[in-house]
Automatic annotation (TrEMBL):
Keywords: Membrane, Transmembrane, Transmembrane helix. This is Uncharacterized protein. The lineage of its organism: Bacteria, Bacillati, Actinomycetota, Actinomycetes, Kitasatosporales. The chain crosses the membrane at residues 32-48, 55-72, 84-101.
């Protein structure tokens, strides 16, 4: 099994990833609430989750939610609570990617 990032480093990387995702979406005109921004942030959580420990998934999800909520949903870095849906999506995508899935082998 390959080495996984420590939890603190995963959280810090998630903050940087959230900022980078917001910066990339802004010139594309996709920094608004919608499926594209939601998918981009969830894909970033899943990508970081593959290199992180499962315990880090809540931190990754929270960091992605902060940037998505502050810049895509409510704009101008204003946070608002619309329920746990997006936070749960980001956390779940990081957690599923972080779980140590083993390939099934068929023995003859």
């Amino acid at each position: 099994m390959r080495d996984r990032l420590p939890v603190a480093l995963s959280g810090a990387t998630a903050l940087l990833l959230g900022a980078a995702t917001a910066l990339v979406l802004a010139p594309l005109g996709e920094l608004r609430g919608g499926w594209f921004a939601l998918t981009a942030f969830a894909a970033g959580c899943a990508a970081l989750g593959t290199r992180s420990r499962p315990v880090a998934a809540p931190f990754i999800g929270l960091a992605a939610w902060l940037f998505h909520n502050g810049f895509a949903e409510h704009r101008y870095a204003q946070l608002g609570w619309d329920g746990p849906g997006h936070l749960a999506l980001f956390t779940a995508s990081a957690l599923v990617a972080a779980l140590p899935w083993r390939r099934l082998r068929v023995h003859d």
